[in-house]
Amino acid sequence: MPRGAALLANSLLNKGTAFTERERDALGLRGLLPPRMFTLEEQVGRVLGNLRRKENSLEKYIFLTTLQNRNETLFYRLMQDHAEEMIPLIYTPTVGQACLEYGAIFRRPRGLFISIRERGRIAEILRHWPMTDVRMIVVTDGERILGLGDLGALGMGIPVGKLALYTACAGLHPAYGLPITLDVGTDNAALLADPFYLGLNQQRVRGAAYDEFLAEFVAAVREVFPRALMQW
Amino acid sequence: MRETGSRLADQRLLFLGAGEAGTGIADLFVAAACSTGLPVAEARSRCWFVDSEGLVVRNRPGRPLAHHKLPYAQDHAPVRTLAEAVDAVRPTALIGVSGQGGAFTPAILRRMAEFNKRPVIFAFSNPTSHAECTAEAAYRETDGRALFASGSPFDPVTFGGRTFHPGQGNNVYIFPGVGFGALACGAREITDAMFLAAAKRLAELVTDEDLAMGRIYPALTRIREVSMELAIAVVAEARFDGLATIPLPEDPRAELCARRYEAVYRDYV
To answer: Catalytic positions of A, please?
Structure first.
């Protein structure tokens, strides 16, 4: 169990202002949090108020992503209790706009980005993922994102959103999910010219080189995460 | 079909867009129709596609058809536009998977309403700006008779004194429950039969109240319950097909509920 600031930085374990008095003493949190303790329900009320103050869906998406990276329990409590309001924000239609602007709104990465430059090292990269017991991998190469076409590495919003839904809707433990983007370039000229584009700045690799990359990926997943299902 | 009073075998589906999203839906339709006793060829003959070069027909001049379209290439003279295809096929359902916003024009919607008492209009392309028509247009042009669903949500529409709450025909209803069920029973692959079992269970979960509101999917507020029901159906199908590798109790409900992640804080000390 991490302690102190490291515990607050761990989104799966962090409770923010809901850490109890005993936990604050035992886990070195005293002083790192304001004195008053809040319940999960009270925290939901606060984040819901903050969310609804945001002026548009993209701002709400950014807010929810930041919450997910900070405190996943609170994020999923909010998803579960307000599914009808939240699902269109973390998935279609908002996620489409979020993908289009994924470079510009980028805060911190979530999931694994595996580019074709890492050919031959995919298993090694999968082992960089901090969770060892992955059960569900959602993967995209970003070529056909919703009806929006080739978004290259910006397609990552889709696997991230799908896995959030696995947890919020079906109850898959968040530690079991792994979103992956396979970046083989993009043929989207606007992205290649965009100064904030996050992916490889090159045309899409196709044909045999692409097939070999994919085959290596599938074999590496079987080796590193043998229990995982893959959704493409 | 609960609403139209028809059978699966009575349907004629016209898809706009012949990508794998469309042929995937058609494949499931065929599987479902075959399970009611219809031969495969018959079931396929009820699925028509319009792509960028017009109606998908056998021996179409121009580029050869992509592999995944071949099973749905019908014997028919070439037809260029969607409007002409609607006249030629007289579909019971128009299914938009094209990414072309507004492709279901008012004239096309009105034709659908001429052919059908309850025309099925699915504008599945995402996001909202790419939907083939709006909910408002679907109800307005069909005198409120359309059974409408879209991939992205639309606000409720009031037409002719009725308020419709169109459903979001989104894969969020299906994949979380299917994946959870498959993982729980250790299925190593997810088959069409498992998707079909999930789809049938989903249809059963639509209430009369949903239908009265113009909604052909359950309310999203029930998504946890819906996903659990689908997961149970998927486990049953996987067992039946011999794909389950992890033993579960005969009735797996309690076990699946116990394995479900709950967003609550646990005590650390």
So the answer is: 91, 162
